[in-house]
Amino acid sequence: MKKDSLWKTALEQLQIKISPAAYQTWFAKTSLESVNNNIATIGCPSTYIKKRLEKKYKPQIKEVLKSLTNTALQLDFVIKNQQKRKDNNNLGPLFQEQKKKELKRKEKIKESGLSPQYTFSNFVVGNNNNLAYAVAQSIVQNPGTRYNPFFLYSDVGLGKTHLVQAIGNKILKTHPEREVIYCTSEDFTNQLIQAIQNRTTAAFKTKFRSADVLLIDDIQFIAGRETTQEEFFHTFNALYMEQKQIILTSDKPPKEIPDLEDRLSSRFGSGMLADMQFPDFDIRLAILQKKCEDLKLKVSTDVLEYIAEATPSNVRELEGALNRVVTLAETRGVQPTKSLAQKVLGEPPQKKPPTADEIIKTVCNYYTLKPKDLKGKRRPVRIARPRQVAMYVMRKETELPLEEIGNQLGGRDHTTVIHGVGKIKELIHNDPGIKSQIMEITTELGG
Ligand code: ADP
Ligand code: MG
């Protein structure tokens, strides 16, 4: 009997012996994988089912199989998809070839010093980094031509390492035969010192001078180190002459790195310079959304907005803040919420209050008036009401005392200001028009 029809018949007989519910739960998705050397291998869809069959149903299965084959078969239970994975090894030469290539590629990435997690696809582009990104893209297309060297600088945590590693990873992906070397300038220094100690400087030189793409991160740390600067100068020249791509990062532009030899700083600045700035709120939010997408985290937009608001500094801190919120939610077994984020991160930093001048300007723009109208003596409602709005907004958005508000609005005394502010408070309750005007004005002021 063929194994599939054998198992089909066996299942039919088992159905008679056990309850329909038990059959459905434990047997419906099983199969007979093989019968060899008196061992029947039974494929189970999960560990859970495998354990149950082994523990409870072994005797019944044995009995049924014996009745059908006249043989006392031993039973072996396996999990089906594991079986499949084993089978992959036998998929033939094409598969083996692909696997070898993949292994080689991974090996190459490891040797290059790159980390595969830094890619273009998880790098968020915005107006803070779009020049650097465009240059990076162009280098991937044509390394060693137009933008050589590429010198990328910014404050810490703004994505330099990410972007230059993305270049390296992409080049290795499209041209696996190219030699890409990534290291920090400290690694470069350490390797050089070791080479000098071990008398292997020739090998050191050959290694760095045979790169097609050399990425040195945080080059500022070679400043003040005479031997390293000397060696790097020659490495740089050798690669440059051969039109090999050189990419350097730093926390400042070449000319501003203290104790960097002139011949180096002039070479570093001779190609393409680009910097990256702090990301604004929208970009911070986009980065958080991207992170959640990549890590398959479910975090609602209002929580992400809170994190983006509360962490206005660099991207590394932004990621750290997201991790802290998500980890705390996980340990408590709850979804991340805004109040949880508030607990972890504290209140977002306070914005600076607007100045009296800014308020006057914004109110005037809104009602198409001139500051001198608000400050003047005239009292038609068309002017008096906006003047009172200005008083109200100053009272609400600043710490200015009543006298000062009066001063700012043409030398009015504090009782006039109290009256004006009171009038608007009253109108806000009764007139939705005024309420929305005030909201628009405060939004305009960044409140
Ligand atoms: P730097 O080298 O400038 O100090 P990194 O490249 O180490 O900064 O960036 C810090 C962290 O922020 C890294 O985890 C990086 O992946 C992330 N990061 C920075 N910029 C971006 C961006 N534009 N999009 C996505 N992640 C970013
Ligand atoms: Mg870095």
Describe this structure in words.
The chain is an alpha/beta fold and 447 residues long. Helices cover 60% and strands 9% of the residues. The model has no long low-confidence stretch (mean pLDDT 91). The structure holds adenosine-5'-diphosphate (ADP) and magnesium ion (MG). Magnesium ion (MG) is lined by residues 160-161, 217.
Would you spell out the secondary-structure blueprint of this structure?
Elements: H1 3-17, H2 20-27, E1 31-36, E2 39-44, H3 47-69, E3 74-79, H4 80-88, H5 93-112, H6 130-141, E4 150-153, H7 160-174, E5 180-184, H8 185-197, H9 201-209, E6 213-217, H10 226-241, E7 245-250, H11 262-268, E8 272-275, H12 281-295, H13 301-310, H14 315-332, H15 338-345, H16 356-367, H17 371-375, H18 381-397, H19 402-408, H20 414-430, H21 432-444
Parallel strand pairs: 2-3, 4-7, 4-8, 5-6, 6-7
Antiparallel strand pairs: 1-2
Strand content: 5-15%
Low-confidence stretches: none
Strand order of the largest sheet: 5-6-7-4-8
Q: Mind describing the biggest β-sheet?
A: 5 strands, parallel
Q: Name the shape in a single word.
A: flat
Portion of residues in helices? Answer: 55-70%
**H/E element order:** HHEEHEHHHEHEHHEHEHEHHHHHHHHHH
Amino-to-carboxy terminus distance: 80 Å
Strand element count: 8
Radius of gyration: 35 Å
Average residue-wise pLDDT = 91
Structural class: alpha/beta
The number of distinct helices, counting runs of at least 4 residues, comes to: 21
Ligand inventory reads: adenosine-5'-diphosphate, magnesium ion
